[in-house]
Fold each of these.
Amino acid sequence: MDPRALTFEAPAKGTGPETAIGLYVHIPFCETKCPYCDFNTYAGIEPLIPEYVLALRKELRIWGSLLGRPTVGTVFLGGGTPSYLPAEALESVVGTMRDAFELLPDAEVTMEANPDDCSPAKLADARGAGLNRISIGVQSLDDRLLKSLGRRHDAAQAVSAARTARSAGFKNVNLDLMFGLPDQSLAHWEDSLAGVMELAPDHVSLYALTLEPNTPLAAWVKAGKVADPDPDLAADMYEHAEDVMASAGFRHYEISNWARPGFESRHNLVYWTNGPYLGVGPGAHSHLRATRFANLKSPREYIRRMREIALTPILSRRERGDFLPAQTWGIGSHDPVERNEEGDFLLSPTSEIAPSRAPSPGGRGGRGGGDVADPALRQAQGASPARTFLSPTWESNEERGVTPPATAFMAQAGIVESAERVSPAQEMSETMMMGLRLDTGISARAFQARFGRTLDEAFGDIIAGLVDLELLARDPSGIRLTRRGRLLGNEVFSRFVGVPGAA
């Protein structure tokens, strides 16, 4: 799809969570690239950092202006390794973000971090810049396994990083672990998990290793240089983790994520419950209403193209009212992250969810650290009518209300490089795939309110078959994965792909 022909609605001006969007900020730099990682990250391009920061700040200002300075409820600085940035660069990015967008007073602002970047001074600077949540890529507390993963820290540094984060004033700390690694025994896993729990984190993300194509690790396994991970052993590790985390009082609120009550990742819940989301930086994905779009991937080319954009005319155009924000995102008048009386998360009746690429129970192709979902999953959709962006500068009378000038501008500038419309049939299937990742599953009421069809009308035979296989549990309120279903999540999700009944 030509990204210059995108259609979506602008955010409403407002100060409440019902009008807030999520913001993802991509930092593509790594000191070294891990052999299992297939993310859009790069090692050895540190000389680009100063120009990259300027380009990123410029993109933030452009989107903030063109979207009418929308309200932001959550921010996630991911990568790559955001903690690798110099403190002054990180502070300038966060400062520009606050100038360009209206952050909620209680906005969750997360930074991914590698343990060896977590010096007291750097984390104090991060807190001073306004970051209030940190996600540390521990991955393992076994030095031999860390070395085999190409990690640049050791177990002692990981432990120190978690403690330093507390000392720096972070009251919301996530620790990331990987399991199902080559040559990792159950005893290794038990020790790492026990060690992490001793650090008293607020949130824990546990990911099974995924052998991503075209990565060094996948090539080593294929060549027989590294042992192929054992999926049965990985399942045992996952079940052990479920028991340990439950005993510690953590809620298993998503397939790969556990949290102390009240510390669930609000940014990730934007994805899983279909809140509006914007991504900035090379390779960053956005999903606004029923359209996904993505920036070009090359950091060098991103810098070059951003350099060519004249910022002053854009801001002037905004000031004279050429870009008119719509009245609503169309997500309803309530917070898209609903809870029932028991505190369970509910899918918004007006939400829309993208498909999951992640393998069950939550595979990890790799990143420096953190619990963020695949950027390609992030999107937003609303059912309520609203005005689109209108601009006499960009649209003829016939096109008025069809092409949003904000995204059209970024596409013509070569920043937004690809786009995809999501069909109604996709929306229905993707709602099932993403919503079932949450412990609350799919609400029968919300599904029918949104699609005008019951779960049985859309997927009755599939649901019945999965219940018979003990992969889904069902009650009058809806459906959800069983404990066995969480282990075999991909098997469940695949049943809803391309289902004729969803059309």
Amino acid sequence: MAIALLFCASSAINALANPPQDMAAEELYQTLPADFTPSLTQSGKHSVGVRTVEFTNPQQLDINSGKIADRTLVVELWYPTHDHQQSSRYDNVTRLGKPFAVKANALRDAPVKKVVDNQHYPLVVLSHGYTGYRTLMFYLGEHLASHGYVVAGIDHTDSINADVSADNPYSGFPSTLYNRSRDQNFVRQQLLADSSPVADQVDKQSSGLIGYSMGGYGLVGSIGGCYYFSDQTLATLNPAASSQERQQAQQLLNNCEAPRTQDNWQAAIAMAPWGQQLKVFDAESLTSINTPLMTIVGDLDDVSDYASVAQLHQAIGSRDKYQLTYLNARHNVAAHPAPRIAYEQAYDLGHYFEAAWDSRQINQINRHLVLAMMNCHLKQSKDACELLELDGRIESGWKGFPTRFATGIQWLGAEDKAAQ
């Protein structure tokens, strides 16, 4: 397949086992007094259930083989429950294939709590970067579910840690470029279907999407943008690719002639979205996007490039849009804190580490603003919308944040014209 050849992709998958069940699960978070945290970081009134499900998208193009085959996605599903049994754990592997387990604040396979007074739960989909895994942002899944949401974290087949070897680190990149937006929309469709495990509880009119890095790349396509990979862009990605290979890749990736919809998602959060540094988004399509959008990025991001992310944010036509900037942060503004095993190798630790920030503090701020965004635009909460009416640097005083223990972040609202 031309696009696979373009990145020297291989269909080989690491045979990496999950952690043995007798491996102790780590606790990644410490409880902080309420006076030290933003107001919406506290868990909601619901206990949280979690279960692992699979959805199969039939008859899809397999980028690596060039054949038509079913594409199966593993999904972690968080939701309100009424159970109070013992919490579970999340098992995964690092980029180098080292197993680890972290403690969950959710109850494995607990029943979904029935809705009361027709107050169905809005849906939020989490889409990890390249590479990643479905529980990379489990702290958001649990937090949102405790406040009355159904949340789905996707394992994007071909681009999870367990699928990509350090010896061939770009093997899953072609599939990521082609499938990411397709996966996001497919999982939403499955969870809103009558056959969904949450069919009776989910709000079929309110869906939010959160995408990190390559998940953010997919998000732009899912909310109404389209992709245009120029010959120059493809040559930049792989200077060794032939002209014919680049042309075939363009036929697969460029989709501006295909029908698009902007009605699937009522709110979107792009965390360090990849792509604008290579101008892979059609400029006209960006101006037509009207989905409420929050962009979260570090001002020293050297993967997605901060200036390019800010440019993308400004180019999107949404009336309701907000940009949160972590000052002195690079690209790792979405993941949970690093597990202990990641500290053994730089390649693993680089998936989580921020030199000037504690990941737990980033996660706390994300909890607050993500919930405010979703409550505002999916639940139409006026109080939540007021928490998004911020200005400038946080040191000037932001509603919902502790006065003294909040520093180092910056906000741009819809009326701001450029990153400061």
Amino acid sequence: MKANYTIGATATGGRNGHVASENGILGIEVRHPKALGGANDDYANPEMLFGLCGLF
């Protein structure tokens, strides 16, 4: 099967870091949610990103 479109992304810092698309359009700071030991809920967290994947 031929791929119609591909894009790359990077993640640095693990669960307390930064994720970004290779084209620079998307860049998000991620942190542990408060419920899992994080300081607060002021940032996106990996669970949010995982949940969003199911929407497309």
